């Protein structure tokens, strides 16, 4: 499966895709990832990712994903919910929700192909299964993406990541997956 994705990236990179990542660009992606580590739960994840380029080639990351046992979201959403009753102004709640999960750095390799290391230290996961020993986890993720623009604004992104639960240092995971989306 991953060989097919990399072959498609290679072939489409040499097409007429001249898309670049520049300040103000917004990328919306949907994707799938799976655990590389043997685990009784949390193996298949469906994700929705947003990246907003605050500078040329530097993006802020937001990710919401769902699995059979949990939901993952940026910490800013939890902050917004917690201050909802205490904030004197709705704008303060809105600004807290906009706190990103992390950042990515998009290094151009070829026309329409970027290597994108990322670091997302502000993730929250809420669990509802009987296997987890708590309901909330604070998750940090780091990894690397290969962003291939396969058409005008259309992006295919395979990636690998390492994930760490900050509350239990021995609880880590590695995942691989891909996303498909559009850039505005």
- The CATH architecture can be named as Beta Barrel
Number of strands: 10
Helix content: 10-25%
Based on helices, strands and strand pairing, what is the structural class? alpha+beta
Secondary-structure element series: HEEEEHHEEEEEE
Determine the mean pLDDT.
83
Radius of gyration: 17 Å
Distance from N terminus to C terminus (CA atoms, Å) equals: 28 Å
Point out poorly predicted stretches: 13-17
Bulk shape = globular
Please state roughly what percent of the residues sit in beta strands, choosing from under 5%, 5-15%, 15-25%, 25-35%, 35-45% or over 45%.
over 45%
The largest sheet, given as strand count, sense and whether it forms a barrel, is: 10 strands, antiparallel
Number of domains: 1
Characteristic terms for this protein:
single chain; alpha+beta; Porin; 3 helices
Compact description:
This protein has three helices and ten strands.
What does this structure look like?
The chain is of the alpha+beta class. It has one domain: Porin (Beta Barrel), CATH 2.40.160.20. 16% of the residues lie in helices and 54% in strands. It is built from three helices and ten strands; from the N terminus they run αββββααββββββ. Strands 1, 2, 3, 4, 5, 6, 7, 8, 9 and 10 form a ten-stranded antiparallel beta sheet that branches. Helix 2 packs antiparallel against helix 3. The longest helix is centred in the N-terminal third of the chain and has 12 residues. It is globular, with a radius of gyration of 17 Å.
């Amino acid at each position: 499966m991953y060989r097919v994705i990399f072959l498609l990236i290679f072939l489409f990179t040499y097409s007429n895709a001249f898309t670049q990542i520049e300040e103000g660009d917004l990328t919306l992606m949907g994707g799938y990832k799976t655990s590389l580590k043997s685990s009784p739960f949390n193996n298949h994840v469906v994700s929705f990712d947003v990246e907003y380029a605050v500078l040329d080639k530097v993006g802020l990351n937001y990710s919401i994903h769902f699995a059979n046992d949990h939901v993952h979201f940026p910490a800013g959403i939890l902050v917004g919910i917690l201050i909802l009753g205490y904030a004197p102004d709705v704008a303060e709640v809105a600004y807290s929700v906009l706190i990103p999960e992390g950042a990515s750095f998009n290094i151009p390799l070829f026309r329409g192909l970027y290597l994108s290391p990322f670091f997302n230290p502000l993730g929250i996961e809420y669990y509802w299964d009987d296997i987890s020993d708590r309901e909330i986890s604070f998750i940090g993720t780091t990894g690397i993406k290969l962003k291939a623009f396969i058409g005008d604004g259309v992006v295919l992104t395979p990636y690998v990541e390492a994930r760490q639960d900050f509350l239990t240092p021995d609880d880590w995971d590695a995942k691989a997956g891909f996303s498909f989306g559009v850039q505005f």
